[in-house]
Amino acid sequence: MTAAQAQFLEVAEVAPVPDGLKIVHPEVADGAAIWRIARDSKVLDLNSSYSYLLWCRDFAATSVIARDEKGEVAGFITGYVRPDRPDILVVWQVAVDAAQRGRGLAAALLDGLAARVAAARPVTTLETTITPDNAASQALFTSFARRHGVGVARTVLFDAGLFPDDGHLPEELYRIGPLA
């Protein structure tokens, strides 16, 4: 581990994990619960239940879940490392179960994910896309950047015209870094 990775790991512990919850990597058996939380969020683009099972198998090392004291999934973040840029961690989806919202869990999940991935590989940038109407995600990722003392660059990645005629808003790319 480089000195920059070690420094990032120290800073990444800023958002505390709410009492009774533990942040871990998902297992395949968690796919159904992740799908349910995504569906119930009513904000995320819902993927097939099959895709969440695959995600938990193939991208578990770059994703995290929060388990409550009963072992139930309370929230999740799915992510991946860009194949053409292995120093970039892409956050795909973030969701917290309705019963767990308002406790800072999304921030703790994001910090936990960044720390775990940075411990395994050099990560310099975190990327995500957010629609212009998603104030909660905008606040989550800009507060992550503030906690870690890094900048945020925003550009439109996918204009609304690229999506089928379903009223999808543009997806703005948030590039956060440098992390190390």
Name some characteristics of this structure.
7 strands; 180 residues; 28% strand; globular; 7-stranded mixed beta sheet; alpha+beta; 5 helices
Q: What is the gist of this entry?
A:
The protein is of the alpha+beta class and 180 residues long.
Distance between the termini: 11 Å
Structural class, judged by helices and strands? alpha+beta
Strand proportion: 25-35%
Categorize the overall geometry.
Answer: globular
* Biggest sheet character: 7 strands, mixed
Number of strands: 7
| Helical content (DSSP H or I, runs of 4+) | 25-40%
Series of secondary-structure elements, N-terminal to C-terminal: HEHHEEEHEHEE
Count of DSSP H/I helices? 5
With strands numbered from the N-terminus, the spatial order across the biggest sheet is: 1-2-3-4-5-7-6
Rg result: 16 Å
User: Low-confidence stretches at least 5 residues in length (pLDDT < 50)?
Assistant: none
Overall pLDDT metric: 93
Write the layout of secondary structure elements.
Elements: H1 3-11, E1 22-24, H2 31-41, H3 49-58, E2 64-67, E3 73-82, E4 85-96, H4 105-120, E5 125-130, H5 135-147, E6 151-158, E7 171-177
Parallel strand pairs: 4-5
Antiparallel strand pairs: 1-2, 2-3, 3-4, 5-7, 6-7
Helix pairs in contact: 1-4, 2-3, 4-5
Any overview of this molecule?
The protein has helices at 3-11, 31-41, 49-58, 105-120, 135-147, and strands at residues 22-24, 64-67, 73-82, 85-96, 125-130, 151-158, 171-177. It has 180 residues and is of the alpha+beta class. Strands 1-2-3-4-5-7-6 form a 7-stranded mixed beta sheet. Strand 3 (73-82) and strand 4 (85-96) form a beta hairpin. Helix 1 packs antiparallel against helix 4 and helix 4 crosses helix 5.
